[in-house]
Every structure is written in structure tokens, then in C-alpha cells.
Amino acid sequence: MPSTPWRPPSFWKPGFVSKTDIWKDAGEVDTAIARMADDLTALIAERGIQDPLMIGIHTGGVWVADRLHERLGITDPIGHLDISFYRDDFTRIGMHPQVRPSYLPLGVDDRNLILVDDVLQSGRTIRAALNVLFDYGRPASVILATLAERDGRELPIAPDVVGLHAKLEHDEQIKLSGPEPLLMLRGKTPRHAADKPNPSRKSGQDSRTQSDSDPT
Amino acid sequence: MSKQNPQLDAQGNLKHFLTTEGLSRDLLTDILDQAEGFLGVAQQAVKKVPLCRGKVIANLFFETSTRTRTTFELAAKRLSADVLNLNISTSATAKGETLLDTLRNLEAMHVDMFVVRHATSGAAHFIAAHADPHVSVINAGDGRHAHPTQAMLDMFTIRRHKQDFSRLRVAIVGDIMHSRVARSQILALKTLGVPEVRVIAPSTLMPNGIEEAFGVRAYHDLREGVRDVDVIIMLRIQHERMNSSLLPSEHEYFRLFGLTEERLSTAQPDAIVMHPGPINRGVEMDSQVADGPRSVILEQVSNGIAVRMAVMSMCIGTQNLKSQPQGDVDG
Fold first, then answer.
1. Distance of alpha carbon B290 from alpha carbon B274, whole angstroms
2. Domains contained in chain B, CATH given
3. Within a domain: A105
4. Where does the UniProt annotation place the signal sequence (chain A) (predicted)?
């Protein structure tokens, strides 16, 4: 698979966010991923899982999954999931400008999956990702691992393994920047964007990724 | 410019897909990129995505077609839309109903998109101009004018094999004069930056002034025309042309313009051979070429589904944008 080209996060664009800081630097992100790897190892041992299959959600989830995949020493290749065709806001914002093909090198039937994303907020991305997976087959189980989680859940979805817990104001958001180095950025969302969590695609097609318009 | 183009909404999003003419390279590339994503749907156990759930898409075929209608139908179904297939040549118009009355009746059934094939050039534009504002129209071939989804699936197939359009030589062979496919292909190839497009046809099937009008090079000799090309697109020769004064006979056409392995030998070693189908074996090309290693004809059919899914979902996505209040756009 070609590597994902680096794109600046949308809230670096003038006007979108008033202030952006590094919330966790590369070292802290690395430590969090190491901790996640330990927790995952313990969890799969506890559940008696033999050969888990790792699947990352485009784009940030794939970056995290790549690192976890290496740390866990999983031999089966990693899967990439694009949820654009399963988003629940297509009827509001139209086609997503940057769809990448989903790539699942192996069947998911009867496999134990580790689903990896960068930030968990509303839970809508995970809802969509589960729907994609079930259109590929019937997995035996799915474990959810996210690098960071914050408040704002809108669906009954809970992570099994979390690297970082964010305490944020209502008008703040966090986003993973990568693929190298991995940094967690934190920025203030301007008033009108915070009120409207699903901005139209026209507001910045060039560099917008799925987690930009829907921080989940 | 976008305001004048009937295919685009006020923000420049694709609303109708009527022709490859007048669309930007970015937009055509966007269609190809989106299609790349839809290609994966065929790998799923459930070959369906929920994008157009609850939408109604009507296939209006005033002219018969098997492949195009079937792939449009399959594309719509893979997007989870509901599909109406209307074979109008055998129904309402035959009973005397006008095109507009047919249209109004279908609109009353809350159809969201019309896929139109018609023997008259401009029919799809006419329907787009008269349809309800929330309805999208896709041209599935109108007269001698345009067949834009065929052209885009050909572009998609070329890109998957050759990656970069900017260093290609592409030859289109056959009935250039009457071909809506050729027109749409030439316009798309030029927009996507192909530096050399050649058209190869007997002089009776070559439009006058095509070199100046389209910026292509015209050849009347197949052997000369395919020399060093990377892509060869064969066009279908309609049977009715055979019986007109434009061509002497199928046999003679094949002898002069039929593609054989031997004639293919002057093209680039990795050249691909394409055909929109259905093939007339022994007229446009021999079976050795059609079934040979350089033929990508069946791939074109599979790619056609992904490209049509991309165009349909982009147009329906644009309809959705229209319901957004304008003030919401930030940045």
C-alpha cells in the first residue's frame, strides 16, 4: 500500500481555529502507544485470542495501528478501513472529498479483530466502521483501541483500550498529526464551527480529512 | 464559468453529468479518485454501501442497451438506491406521450435521478433543463453527442494501467464521425492532459476539420496511426453504417482498419487495447487481440460500475448540499 501523504490538519488554517498547541509531543504519544500495546497484549491473553487481525481506520487510525501492529508482532498484514461510504451525514454534507479504498487483505470471517482509531468522541465513526466490517463478513469478536478518548459520546460505544484521556472544553478539539512524527494537537474551535459539528465540505476540501469534519 | 455550465451547481459541485465538455481537470480527477474507492465494494461479501439509501434512480432508455443499462442498474443497487428500469422505446412514447409528460409522471413518483439514453443529441440536456431542481440527470448516451460515463470509465482504465496521463499517446480507431463515445473520450483525454490524441478512420467516417476543432491528429492508415501508441481504443462499427454508402463491406473494413496482432506490433510493447463493447469480432478486431494479453475490455466493464457509482453518488451528494443553509459554510 502507498503511504498516506502528510496533510496539514485543518485547524492550522487561518480562521478555523484561534489557537493550536501540541497537546502531547512525539515522546508522549509513543509512550501512550507502548502502554496500549501492553494493555492489548493482556486483554487478548485474558480472552484467549490466538491470531488477532489488526484494522486501522483512515487516516489517523492507520498510523496508530501500524505502530501497534509492530509492537504486538502480529504477522498477518494490517487492514485499512475507509468509512466514507457509511457515514451518517452523507444526506447533510454530500460526498466526502477524500475517499481512499478500504483494503482488507484477509477475510474477517471468524477472526478476532482489533479495530484502531485515533480519537474517540461521538462514536459515529466506530458505528460506521462496524457496519463496513460486517459487510465484509462475520468477525468472531472486535476489540476497540483508540489512542485518545474525550467526552461527547452520542452513541453507546466504549473503547476497550485507550492511550490518552482528554479533558477538554466544549469548544476545544484534539487531532492526531502524522504519520511521522505522531503529535496530538489541541485547538480551539471557533464559535460557529463548534456549534455546528458537521461543516460543509466546501469549507476546505483541499486538506480536509474525515476526522476534520467529524471529530469522533 | 461554473455559473454557465448546466452540469454544476452554484458552488461548482457536479449536479448533472451530461458531457465531459467544460469540466475542469480537477473535477474529472475527482471522479476518477472517487471511483477508486468504489472499486473495493466489489471485494466485500455484501457488495453494497448505504450511500444512496432511500433514493430512487430511474433508468430512462429511449434507445436499447444491455451493457450500459445493466452496469448503471448494478451501480445504483450497490449504492443501495431503488432502481426503476423504463424501457421507453416500448412503452409510453410509443403510445404518444411526450418526453416532458413522461418526465412529469416520473417526478410525481419522487425520482431523485434520471439516467437517460436517447437517440437524439441534446436529450439529456433538455431533461436536465426541465426537470425539478432537486433532480439530477446523467447522460447515458445521446445521439452523436456524448457518452460521458463511458469516457470516464475509459479514463479510469487508462489511469489504472498507465498512471500518468501527461506522457501518453492514445489512438481512437473507427467510426469517429458518428461516435458519441469518441467525442467524450477526446474531450476527457485533452482535459486530463494527454499530449497526443490520434483518431484513425476511413475518410468517409472522419469528420472534416477534426484536427483543428479538437487538437487531435487524424490518420487514415491504421498501421501508421498506432505506431508507438500506449493506448488503442477501438470503436464499434454500427451495422447500419455497413449497409450505407459509407463503408464498402465488413470484410474490407477489417482488411484496412481491423486490429490484428501483426498490426499491433508497431505500438508500444505495453500498449493496452480497449473497446466499449459489444465487439464485432472479425470487423473491428480479431479474436486473438480481443482475448489477448493486451486487451482490457472486460476490465472496462467492471470499472464501469465503480465509475458510475462515483458519478451517481457525487450528483446525489450535491443535491444534499443544496438543503444546507448557505450561512453554514465556514473558513
1. 9
2. 25-147+302-330 (3.40.50.1370), 148-297 (3.40.50.1370)
3. yes
4. none
